[in-house]
Amino acid sequence: MSEHRSGINPGFVTRHTLSLYGLDKHNAPLIVHDIGDLPYIDRVKLIEAKQMLTVAYDASHHSIDDMIAIVEKHGASIKDNWWSRVKLGWQRQTDQNVKDNAKHEPHCCNKMPHR
After folding, report:
1. What is the CATH topology of the domain spanning 10-103?
2. What pLDDT, on the 0 to 100 scale, is given for residue 1?
3. Cβ of 5: how many Cβ atoms within 10 Å?
4. Are β-strands 13-21 and 41-47 bridged in parallel, bridged antiparallel, or unpaired?
5. More confident call, 9 vs 79
6. In angstroms, how far apart are the furthest CA atoms of the chain?
7. What is the chain's Cα-based Rg?
8. The pTM is what?
9. Residue 73, by phi and psi: left (phi above 0), alpha (psi -120 to 50) or beta?
10. Domain segments of the chain: what residues?
11. 11-33 tens-digit pLDDT
12. How far is it, in rounded angstroms, from Cα 16 to Cα 108?
């Protein structure tokens, strides 16, 4: 069983990988530091040689767009090709599903319905 940072619900953790361009030795550590300092971030890994950022976070509190905003704040951006756009759409949908599921209040079949 893997350990998660304090306060993170393991049921809502999502892991996404972004292909980036514009990384250099100056902005790469700043990106990792700023993302890692956010609450509800479980892991941040940056492979500078491949320009790949992998982030695991509690999607009931964050979305992939929060990570992209930090990347762009430091002068880098995500790759703008067909596959990256497809993955980004899927990642946004996954984050929205987790956020919606976190808000859902389950009902019990054994209770009398409210009138």
Report:
1. Alpha-Beta Plaits (3.30.70)
2. 42
3. 15
4. unpaired
5. 79
6. 63
7. 17
8. 0.82
9. alpha
10. 10-103
11. 889 999 999 999 999 999 999 99
12. 34
Residue 48 tokens read as 């500078």
What phi and psi values does residue 102 have, to the nearest 5 degrees?
Answer: -70, -30
Which three-class secondary structure string do you get for the chain?
Answer: CCCCCCCCCHHHEEEEEEEEECCCCCHHHHHHHHHHCCCCEEEEEEECCCCEEEEEEECCCCCHHHHHHHHHHCCCEECCCHHHHHHHHHHHHHHHHHHHHHHCCCCCCCCCCCC
For the sheet with 13-21, list strands across it.
41-47, 52-58, 13-21, 77-78
Q: Which tokens belong to 111?
A: 């209770």
Q: How far apart are CA 39 and CA 85, in angstroms?
A: 27
Residue 67 tokens read as: 């990570």
Confirm if 107 and 51 have CB atoms less than 8 A apart.
no
Amino acid code (one letter) for 53: L
